[in-house]
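Why run this: before we spend reagent on co-expression, it is cheaper to look at a predicted model of the complex and decide which construct boundaries make sense. The entries below are exactly what would go into the expression plan.
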Amino acid sequence: MSDAQHISLAEFAATMPQRRDEALPPWVHAPESFEPPGMDRLEELLDTVVALQRAEWLQDGVYVGPRAMGSVYRDLLDAARTLGVAVPPAVVAGVGPSSQGTFGTDDRPFLLLSSFFLQGAPEVERRFVVGRLCGHVRARHVTWGTLYALLVDQDGLMKIGRRTLGPALEILLAPISLGVRLALSRWHRAAEITADRAGLIACRDVDAARRALLRLALGVRPEVDPADYLDTLKGTRADDSPGRWAELLASHPFMHKRMSALDLFARSAPWADLGGAVTGEVLTAEELARRTEALLAVG
Amino acid sequence: MERSVETALGSAGDFAGAALWRSACRDLGSGLRIAVIGTDPDATARLGKRVRDAGRGTALVLPLDPAQADGLLAVEEALVGAHAAVWATPVTAALGETERDAMARVGRLVPFERAVVIADRHVLDRLSDDPEGEWGQIRARLAVVVPPGWAVVDPTDLDGWIADLDRRRDGLTRDRRVAVARVLLDDARERTAASLAESVSAVDRAEALLGEEDAALDEARRHGERIAAHVLGTVQSHTESLLVDLRAFLSTLENELPSEVAAVDDVVTVRRALPHWLDHVVDGFVTRRLDAWRVGVLADLGEVRIPEEDARRAALWPPALHPAPLRANGGWARRLAVTAALGGGAALALAGLVVPGVFLASVGLAGSALTREDPDAPRERLIASARAACRRMADDADRLLREQLAQIEAELKTLGDREARAADEARQALRARLVEERAWHRNRARELRQVLDALAVRVEAFGRPESA
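The model came back. Tokens follow.
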């Protein structure tokens, strides 16, 4: 069947810059888009590097499908439908829960899931994690998130470069890594908040989302209630400790902030608009953004 | 006898009857007791006084209001402890219809020694011109309307009638106990028989409901399997058609690539826009085609009356069909060889080996000049690369949509069992209650049958009721 409705290449090329500025959903926190010159080249480079990394993960991992981890595949289909993204390929590998992420480029993303996290995870927590990774796709975080992981993350994609170039890479990349950290850490932390919201939208259960976050933080199934965890932190955390500045260059906000940000979102109008149950006062989108920004402030 | 009747009543669960029996035995053993009953309270009270004045035993004055059910029950309870009964009827309206109805209602428990006495004979002397004549008429009428089993006793003969009863008191007591026992045991037997019938019917009801439950579970399973078969068949046929359309579309797109690429002058723009254009166009087609797929599937399922809720199980989502990176640059071997020749030649010249250096550099320059790349080559390479991407996307679409289809198939395969299980879970509480009720009623029916047999033996031993 021929499809006469599609745009010609010439027309597309003429209007491409506007097309890339597609509207992001209202649950995205602090939407920012970077479009520096040479983005195409950068994406090509990332495609190549990520393809190498994905090939390595696939040596021991598996593509998620109906016959391989069918339950995760079902969660993936549900999350993609809920968040309105094309079903991305997903690889399950024996990596740690904190290495899970969405890699590639905004146009060619794929998900990396941890078999350690998925092992014994209840369906609702699986949905949260798969949903938050699909949320990165929907919010178009993938290209910059991958670049961040490539240049900053010490245990992820950088590993493959280190193997090929050895210590030279460290020397070469050290200043770049610091620069990227300084430039992108704040953006990355905001992106994680967006992803948490996407996870909640996919699983629709605030308690389960908090438990899943706790499990991502602690790595195992913790015998602690998220509310107790927050209470404990309140009692032991020293807000004037110099340790709080460590978050400045951290890729993720501190866990208690993520949980609080999730609670804020669960009381907001964007969440209510998506059919979420809100008790008490409903925060407007602006109020939500303001409070989340205040929560994420470092220092 | 007293104990055996009490035990029989207790075993039938008639504890009120057993208590009544104990009370009746106690009353009947404590001297002559005559119940004075009547629907006219004044006449009854006056006749009661008359019986009391006779000075033989106890007179139980029991005015009866037939409209009061509670009053009737109290009279019946009092009657079981009486040896004899006197019905007080007023001379002005002796044994009217209301009275006769009231007599019939208490008749079952009235002692066998029973008499109707016209109260207030002296009123006739004041009201009538011919008291004797009228009295005779009243007595004659009374003899006609008096219910069977009742004697008509003249007020003047009442003392003699009571004295006669008193003389036969021991025998009366014995007979009265037998009569009361028979009535109470009969009542207990009737109630037991009713309970038995109720229990048997409850067992039948429970079994019928359980049977319906099994049928409902089978129906739920069949419903699920039917839905699964329809949904799967429809989804498969529409997906096959979608894949054919997608391949045709990608093939057309592949053929259109040269003209599309030729329409853009700048190769750099082509290189930059082509992968995004492919992505956009294919994504748009798949989205539109999946929308049409959904409409077609729902229409087909609607035609075979599959409920919308079940039809929603048929859902495919757009797979990620991103084209692989397109390559415009080629001839890397030639570039490397030329660079190596020029670089190597320069290095040799600098090292003092001028002749080999110049020679090597000349070979490099000659190679570069003779194998210069066609200016259109990047464009051709992009087209070839895009064609390969189209084919790859067609393969990916086939694989990814079939994976989703396999997922739907796997879920639908167990739909029948899941529907039956869901129905079973929803009805488990009801089912458990029915099974428990059935067991309880079965036991109860078994016990009641045993009691009924025992009561039948006892009732048989006492003979048929005299008043029946």
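The first helix of chain A runs from residue 9 to 20. The interface with chain B takes residues 1-3, 5-10, 12-13, 16, 19, 40, 44, 47-48, 65-67, 70, 73-74, 77, 80-81, 85-89, 107-109 of chain A (CB under 8 Å). Bring this page to Monday's planning discussion.
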